[in-house]
Amino acid sequence: MQVTVPFSPEQASTYSGEVDALYGFLWALTIFFGVVLSLAILYFAVKFRRRHEDEIPRGVEGSIRLEVVWTVIPFIVSMGIFLWGANIYYRMYRPPAEALDIYVVAKQWMWKFQHLDGHREINELHIPVGRKVRLMMTTEDVIHSFFVPAFRVKMDVVPGKYSTVWFEATKPGRYHLFCAEYCGTSHSGMIGWIDVMEAPEYQDWLSGGASGGSLASSGEKLFQQLACNTCHKSDGTGRGPALEGVFGKTVKLQDGGTVTADEAYVRESILNPRAKVVAGYQPIMPTFQGQVTEEQLLELAAYIKSLSARPGSEGSADAAMPAGSLKPAQAPPASASRQ
Ligand code: CUA
Description:
The chain is of the alpha+beta class. It is built from 6 helices and 12 strands. The strands form 3 sheets. It has a 5-stranded mixed beta sheet with strand order 3-2-1-5-8, with helices on one face. It has a 5-stranded mixed beta sheet with strand order 4-10-9-6-7. It has a two-stranded antiparallel ribbon with strand order 11-12.
């Protein structure tokens, strides 16, 4: 639904119209009741004004019917707003599986973007039009907030965790990106641009410039540098669990619980290995806190994710992800072998 609220920024994502429609409705409702109540106050003030000094007003009895009306109508209206908002919210905060992943690290005072193919950008993000994009965001220092008014998207970026947000741009163009959480002296300078490009232009952009290897391949190098591969052997004989085919699956833990192996679990397991130990393994992994940056954690996560990538399930930009050289000796059941 396309509803334009006056003074609102340009509409450039699939959400924009919906958010504006809801916002426009709140506006209209506020104006409607503001006018009706003001007029009623004026009318009653005149009609029931005191006409002489010793006038005593008639006693007023309550009216059940009136009270029911002014309770039920606002209840229906406010529940309608709630359901309408919740519907948009749920879709906004559940990224679709087929979305193009882009990793974001915020720091005082810049936005750093990493594409799966290894392209890095600062304060500028290139994305294709008409494609769902999921941002996986974290920060190296304080809380920031990723805000693109034209997309009607705003999400806090919080230290120590990943926040995700997704959107689909509908119009090529250049849109403002803001930090919307006061984060220190140059908070107001923590701004940038989202460049929405037509698919062919985006492909051109992707193929230009040295990318220095995909995110997953940087992660793979790091995996070997940090000697993770000495314990996480692909044939499952290591002191740590094999990581092939694990990403996106449910993992059984030592304490009987389970966890979904996503970016957040990978991150936690690297920084705080004893928090959620995989069933059947000893809590012997040392922490890598202080040895890896947030960007490197994302590279490691991208690498571990690539070990579970299914062929054909990823989009064109992700196709640049190379097959890891740590090939599974025995193909894990859920992960088809990659060529
Ligand atoms: Cu970052 Cu304000």
